[in-house]
Structures are given as structure tokens and as C-alpha cells.
Amino acid sequence: MRKIVLLSLSFLIPILNWAQCAMCRTQVKNNVSHGETELAAGLNLGILYLFFTPYIAVAVVAFLWFRYSKKNERKISIIRHPKR
User: Fold this and answer.
1) Among 10, 17, 77, 80, which residue is least crowded by beta carbons within 10 Å?
2) DSSP of 17-80, one letter per residue?
3) Rg value, the chain, Cα
4) pLDDT tens digits for 9-20?
5) pTM (2 decimals)?
6) For the chain, first and last CA: distance in Å?
């Protein structure tokens, strides 16, 4: 369990999420060496956005499915065991 938590936390550390393709990395290094850091910050933010978007979408679908199933479960229990 401890390994899973540590692995999960490692994805949340922004320093470890600087994975970029070779062309992007070259462009960022060129801009940073000239003193322009806006592109590097924006590119890293975009990578994190693309990384977390599928997980957020799956979490929303799972939440809505859970909520819908609970509503149906209540309706079924009312139909099976009506109050007299």
C-alpha cells in the first residue's frame, strides 16, 4: 500500500512531470537560454493538463454512474417493499 501511495505522489510533483518530446525540449532550452521562460511554463502546464484530463473525465463518469445506480437502487427497494 505504501508503494502505491508513493507512486501516486510522484506523479503530482511538477518537477518530475517535465517530460517533453525532443523538439519541444530543444525549443524550450533555446528560449530559456535567451531569458524567455513563458513558453517553458506554458508547455509544462499543457502537458499536465493533457495528463490529468482523462483521469478527471473517468472520475466524473464513475461518480455519475455511482449516483445513478444509488437512485435506481432506492427506486427498486421502494417497489419491492412498499410501505403499508
Assistant:
1) 80
2) G----HHHHHHHHHHHHTT--HHHHHHHHHHHHHHHHHHHHHHHHHHHHHHHHHHHHHHHHHHH
3) 23
4) 666 665 544 555
5) 0.49
6) 48
